[in-house]
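As a next step, the fold was encoded as tokens, giving this record:
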Amino acid sequence: MNGFSLNNLSLFDNLTNKEIKIVSDFLIEKNYSNEEKIFIKGKARTKLVIIKDGLVKLNTDIADHQETIAMFRSGDFLGEMAFLEKNSLHQHTLIVASPNLTTLELSIYHWFTIQKKYPEIAQKIYHNIAINLKKRLDHSNNKLVTLFAGGKIIALYDNMNEISKHLTEIILKVIPVKYALFCTVSSINSKASVQYALGYKINIGANFDLLNDTFLAKIIENKKTKIFNKSDWSKEHLKLPYISNSLLITPINLGKKTLGLIILGDKLSGRDFSANNQILLDALATQIAPAIEEHRLNALQSSSEDLKRVYIDPFYRPEGDHPLGGNS
């Protein structure tokens, strides 16, 4: 299947093979289809779910829509709060995010049996659950801190280069990488303009011609974040100035328009980019898109006023700007 083994699960760290075998006798294998709901917000917590094969997404309500806050894959487990809080309710909805999903599930009823008959095993599992919850909380906090800081930066700066620089620095605190680019995109001249660069031999103000750079053009056309690894590159791709061993590219979309691109290359840890990295950048891109559009419109208005003043009407003054504060 995918090399899945109970012995490799963090849930069973420090359990002997014999103890893992005891717990496995209580697990029930289940199969789900794409978009099927495993947990539903507001419903009672009744089981712990171990993902054997496939993907799931954890959704939560934000304003008037649902947003994915995390993705989980083979080897991850969820629903452990059922064992920590009696009669508690799910706070989020868990949905299948792959064509098929196979799980191993441990009901509350069977957990109580393990607690009663094998208290030492239960104690070890409780310890592993606590460690996992801490890691998951760190991820959630990373996302919240990034979004909060991103909003603050947008409010503080008017210059696009400054906004780009500081937003990228925030991203790098959560996803440390060797290479990063922050670009704005113009549909008028079909170019992506570099506002900030890290690690690459690319100057701020440099442009990528989207008519020739079909790689970035495809990202903009699809309007979706993509993760690429070394095996995805063709000989033509290797000539591109921003190519690295692994790449995460997020378009900054507002409606049908793509306003910019966030490009990250090669995590310092050496690991591949994860689905949770993708979710974080998607959320940040959604937040900053209106600010980039506002900055673009302000720049256009300023250019228009300069044009009127210098080339069309030497006596032109922007609305509200009258000599001696008088009214015309």
Remarks:
- The chain has two domains: 6-140, 157-312.
- The first strand starts at residue 28 and ends at 33.
